[in-house]
Design a protein that fits this description.
It is a single chain. Helices cover about 30% and strands about 25% of the residues. By secondary structure, it is an alpha+beta fold. The protein folds into three domains: about 5-85, Uridine Diphospho-n-acetylenolpyruvylglucosamine Reductase, domain 2, CATH 3.30.43; about 90-200, Uridine Diphospho-n-acetylenolpyruvylglucosamine Reductase, domain 3 (2-Layer Sandwich); about 220-300, Uridine Diphospho-n-acetylenolpyruvylglucosamine Reductase, domain 1. A hairpin with a 6-residue loop joins strand 17 and strand 18. Helix 3 (about 105-115) runs antiparallel to helix 6 (about 200-215). The longest helix has 19 residues, at about 270-290. The chain starts with a helix and ends with a strand. Bound molecules: flavin-adenine dinucleotide (FAD).
Length: about 300
């Protein structure tokens, strides 16, 4: 049995900011999730390494959290430590045509820096609300582009706490998946190999993608983005709409009126509401169209 007060004391001895019982709804774009036993925010690589070592020594579960924009935490919360890698670990550096960003850097900020530097290739990612660690883990993508197209290498802490760098081609990047899904590795930074282009042209493409998002997506409501992956040969949102499920709700969870691919939180949704709605939608879509939907959002219990 973990003694969370003792573990928190160890974090504080390392000067790692941490809280006991922090509500996870405060740290996810869905605004859903009960308390974590411990929530910590390492401010640098030394603290991050120490945080993971403490968790391993005490044999407690830990979960790496980026910007929390693809996660559905349980209403009961998380029986372990949440390690939040945020803006404090968000440096961005250029070397030639390579832009290297720390895991906590916001993806949109990386896009803006790339544009200012006259480096093209990341425009598709502008407006994806995650940070670099989460984007690499998920191989985030939009408008025909994905992280895999521009990623050259990733530096991470492996299961022993040792730092490693691997080229992108060794990271099993696929549609919304990567090697990080199957290994307890903590991404420290990612390097993107980009093309030189005129800054204004890059900014215009980013603005166009931004406009398309605002027009199509329910950005004014809490969600975790597309609830389901795109099944081969179809779009999840179109299938859900075709089944007449637009606006369909269970508790506070609703199929967005604006974009059927999103489940939104209308104010008081629970994790149970979202899961129950997602299951109902999957069942109806399979019965009526023959397509099987798979969740894109990560459900963490
Ligand atoms: C309105 C909206 C629009 C969206 N649009 C898109 C879109 O167009 N395309 C798209 O692909 N996604 C989209 N998303 C989903 C989400 O933004 C992306 O998946 C994003 O890449 C997740 O990043 P994050 O930092 O929020 O990760 P989180 O949600 O915090 O985490 C996602 C996963 O990454 C892991 N992780 C996070 N950081 C690290 C790290 N440092 N090391 C190892 N693992 C880590 C977590 O453990 C978790 O399993 C959207 C979401 C919203 C709310």
């Amino acid at each position: 049995m973990a003694h969370w007060n003792e573990i928190a004391a160890e974090f504080r001895r390392e000067a790692i900011p941490c809280e006991l019982g922090e509500k996870l709804s405060l740290h996810t774009s869905f605004r859903i999730g009960g308390p974590a036993r411990l929530f910590c925010e390492p401010q640098n690589k030394r603290q991050l390494t120490a945080a993971l070592a403490i968790c391993r020594r005490h044999k407690v579960r830990f979960y790496l959290l980026g910007n929390g924009t693809n996660i559905l935490f349980a209403d009961e919360g998380f029986d372990g430590a949440i390690v939040h890698i945020g803006a404090a670990m968000g440096g961005i550096f250029r070397q030639g045509r390579t832009l290297t960003a720390d895991a906590g850097a916001s993806l949109s900020r990386v896009c803006v820096v790339a544009a200012n530097e006259g480096l093209s290739g990341l425009e598709f990612a502008f407006g994806i609300p995650g940070c670099v660690g989460g984007a690499v883990y998920m191989n985030a993508g939009a408008y025909g582009g994905e992280i895999k197209d521009v990623l050259s290498s990733v530096t991470f802490l492996d299961e022993t706490g040792a730092e490693q760098t691997l080229p992108a081609k060794e990271l099993a990047l696929g549609y919304r998946t990567s090697a990080f899904e199957h290994r307890p590795w903590c991404i420290l930074s990612a390097s993107f190999f980009l093309r030189e282009d005129n800054s204004n042209s890059i900014r215009m493409r980013m603005a166009d993608y931004g406009r398309r998002r605002t027009e199509k997506q329910p950005l004014d409501m809490p969600s975790a983005g597309s609830t389901f992956k795109r099944p081969q040969g179809a779009y999840a949102g179109a299938l859900i709409e075709q089944c007449g499920l637009r606006g369909c709700a269970i508790g506070g969870a609703q199929i967005s009126e604006k974009h059927c691919g999103f489940i939104v939180n209308t104010g008081n949704a629970t994790c149970a509401d979202v899961l129950s709605l997602a299951e109902t939608v999957c069942k109806i879509v399979t019965e009526q169209t023959g397509f099987a939907l798979e969740k894109e959002i990560r459900v963490v219990r």
